[in-house]
# Entry
Amino acid sequence: MLNNEQFLDLIRQEPKKIDSTERTQGFDEIYHKFDLDVAKQQADRCLHCASPYCQWACPVYNYIPNWLKLVAEENILGAVEILHRKNSLPEMCGRICPQDRLCEGACTLEDTGFEAVTIGAIERFILEEAINMGWKPDLTHVQSTGKKVAIVGAGPAGLACADVLVRNGVKPILYDKHPEAGGLLTFGIPEFKLEKQVVIRRRKLLEEMGCEFNFNVNVGEDIDIDSLLSDNDAVFLGMGTYSSMRANLEGECLQGVENALPFLIDNVNYRHNFGLYEKSNKDAPDLGVAGKKIVVLGGGDTAMDCNRTSIRQGATKVTCVYRRDKENMPGSPKEVMHAVEEGVDFEFNTAPISIVGDDNDRVCGIKVVSTRLAEPDENGRRIPENIDGSERIIECDVVLVAFGFRPDPPQWLNVNLKEDKTIACCEQQEFAFQTSHPKIFAGGDMVLGSSLVVQAVYEGRKAAEGIIDYLQV
Ligand code: FAD
Ligand code: SF4
# Structure
């Protein structure tokens, strides 16, 4: 058996430099040796604290110590059932939750000088092992209530809502404008973090449980909300937030300046032949970055995904420009570490000023300036200030803007919004996550603003409970 140090060496065994465009399965390369022995050894390290901090730090309040105990006893089928009492998408969360900021960051072992139990990896392992053993959700005891709910958006929030509804005898009918389920899990987060087959496998499991999926249906265009309301007992909205924040820089309209999400979606569409852009080729962005010098603007997880995707596509140089220091980056430290290992250059404390173009209006560089963090403001936040005279140009062929997303509720949505345009609804209402329209519930990024998969799962599940209470079933 591996001891703690050997285990950590194992999961850190990634090559320092990656220059192959073929390399898309990074996660499996790290975890292919994570077998039952390793999982048991890790699960055995749990101290079973009287107050399980890891559970409190997990947004879905996963019963972590309980399933760790079952793994230690080799009871994988018991563990997978307990896991699903709190989490509808454990195989996704196990892979892409920022565990260092959530469950593992709260593990008591961290405070005692040891590394945390590798909770996320075990969560992923339980699901994979259970599937290998032939496990499927058992709904034979569920009696149909005869009620049905339309779900707009088959992202994590919509899938989690569907999971809880169908387990309670309510028929979920999902609509998504994309050709496959998953939302950003499929059309955003790259394959090396989350394999698309894993999302497709979950969609198939949900279909077998009784969920109905309608793809390539844009609600508001192909079908209107009023028909969904009249044909169903309730409607759940989990449509995410998709309005990319602009850089507001001179030169932003030059050829070669692109938003992060189209770049990432194009990458997944190309690799997996999802058939996006078939209807109109003009929509297909020309975003191949092989052989080019790339600058990525931003410091969050989307920026890290752009960095690492560019490396995999064969970019000759990838530079990530971020206006604060490493400690203040919004991205998960784990993601930043991977980007550094894979060869991304980071320009910390550096802010973009303008994008420079050549005679053909194509990007040829980006003008940046060094920054320092000012004294904390009244909110304790240290705003970066430009340092005069430190301006310089970084040569590049492509600039990827990864500054995040703003809520962009559709025009047809007639429910109360908050000032920041997220939907006004919360858990503490009579019916959890009910909007100002009694029959419409909502959850995920369109309620929270851009957040995390596990948060969207939590809200989708809670909204389903709200719907069940509302329907009195
Ligand atoms: P979404 O996942 O956005 O799903 C919304 C769905 O609604 C989509 O499928 C969309 O097609 C559909 N839809 C929208 N409008 C309509 C309409 N009119 N008709 C029909 N369908 C519609 N989180 C993490 O926890 N870990 C990570 O590593 C991570 N990495 C990320 C990387 C990137 C590049 C991005 C952009 C986000 C990342 N996130 C990550 C955040 C996470 O993906 C989101 O918080 C989560 O997907 C939100 O789930 P959701 O269901 O609310 O919305
Ligand atoms: Fe940790 Fe995320 Fe799993 Fe919760 S859902 S236990 S935060 S990996």
